[in-house]
Design a protein that fits this description.
alpha/beta; Rossmann fold; six-stranded mixed beta sheet; 16 strands; 45% helix
């Protein structure tokens, strides 16, 4: 399929290019000593990603440890409740081991670290799912693990903090600035600058300098591969639309990658938070502009000085002032449409899915569910496949305290 002069049947061979660019987005904007480390990671990944032994080991881990493939579920009661004909389905990444999609790339990154002879993995986390997943991978492979997490998110995500510590990770509280995801990334990068000879920085999304946007996408593509096959087997056809939430955008790229070359509408959902004013949301693709942060060029939210703007979302995993460079590229060429839902729509979707289907979703995933519910009312017929990127166990105490039981 060709879209806006982009040939999608060869898309993954051409994007990113050798320098890590998706069009004008991506690249690597880091100090020379760190670039040497990134070049080492790139070379190692390009070597082992084609290795039969690496591929077979990753397949074994996914089947025997992660519990893959995760199922696709038809949300019959939700579909009937909100629409006259549209059927909604979800890809159940909440049933992946550790409760979210994050383990898909963390096991791959940790396996890469072992191949490279590294002794430690370093990462940031927002909602805590990436931190838990990496702590799990580190325990599995016998690696040390440092997780940097903003003080605000530590308070919101206490269950995941406890899980990381139980798994043996060192959780390092970050109190700078707004003390959320951006600051956690800053701190993790700073630590990596001092430890790159013995450690690998396992970025938690399709962001950061090359090769991480490509590498995380590749590891997450199992979501789209499985979902496409499962949906076709269930229904005899492709979905009309696929939907996923977007912060940095790893779960979305995982799902989208399975459908980019198909006649399927693709929607990414950003957090509108409390409203459109700067500082009240984290919808970078909707309200941002081109800019460089954390070592890559993408679309970002900027303050009046051109620096990363303060952001907010009820979902700790989405409150990031930029997005993956591949999302920026797909946005610019129009292959993926990006929309927003606010906090109230998100919490309503959280409770609606829980009550009608017996599935308690992560707040991040609830953004995608909320958008799919609105989209179903607009479509009138057809089918929607949503990436349910994680389960909501981590969010229950926070939601009950802030919003009560509805």
């Amino acid at each position: 399929m060709k879209y806006n002069n982009i040939e999608f049947n060869t898309y993954f061979k051409n994007y990113p290019d050798a320098n890590g660019y998706f069009g004008k987005y991506g690249g690597s904007f880091i100090p020379p000593e760190l670039q040497t480390a990134m070049d080492e990671i790139t070379q190692a990944y390009n070597t082992i990603c084609k290795s039969r032994n690496f591929i077979n080991e990753l397949r074994r881990i996914r089947k025997e440890f992660q519990g893959r493939p995760t199922p696709v579920s038809h949300l019959a009661r939700l579909s009937e409740n909100i629409s006259t004909g549209v059927q909604i389905y979800v890809k159940r990444e909440d049933l992946n081991h550790t409760g979210a999609h994050k383990l898909n790339h963390c096991m791959g990154e940790a396996l890469l670290a072992k191949y490279m002879g590294k002794k430690k993995v370093i990462a940031e986390t927002g909602a805590g799912q990436h931190g838990v997943a990496l702590a799990t991978a580190a325990a599995y492979f016998g690696l040390e693990c440092d997780i940097y997490m903003g003080a605000v998110d530590i308070q919101k995500q206490a269950p995941n903090v406890a899980r990381m510590k139980i798994l043996g990770a060192n959780v390092i509280e970050v109190t700078d600035g707004l003390a959320t995801l951006k600051e956690a990334v800053d701190a993790a990068f700073a630590a990596y600058c001092n430890e790159y000879k013995d450690a690998i920085y396992c970025i938690g999304s399709v962001v950061g300098p090359h090769p991480f946007p490509m590498m995380v996408r590749d590891f997450q593509s199992i979501v789209g591969i499985e979902a496409r096959e499962q949906f076709t087997e269930m229904t005899g056809e492709l979905p009309d639309s696929v939907v996923a939430c977007v912060g940095g955008g790893s779960n979305a790229m995982g799902l989208f990658s399975g459908f980019l070359n198909d006649p399927v509408d693709i929607y990414g959902v950003e957090p509108l938070g409390r409203g459109t004013a700067l500082g009240d949301h984290a919808a970078s693709l909707t309200y941002g502009e081109e800019g460089i942060m954390h070592g890559f060029n993408s679309i970002m939210l900027k303050d009046k000085n051109g620096e990363p703007a303060p952001v907010y979302s009820v979902a700790s995993g989405l409150d990031y002032p930029s997005c993956g460079p591949e999302h920026a590229f797909l946005h610019d060429i129009g292959r993926v449409k990006y929309g927003v839902v606010d906090d109230e729509e998100t919490i309503n979707a959280f409770y609606t899915l829980s009550r009608l289907e017996g599935i308690i979703p992560a707040i991040e995933s609830s953004h995608a569910v909320a958008y799919a519910m609105k989209l179903a009312k607009e479509m009138n017929k057809g089918s929607i496949l949503v990436n349910l990127s994680g389960r909501g166990d981590k969010d229950m105490d926070y939601i009950i305290e802030k919003y009560g039981i509805r």
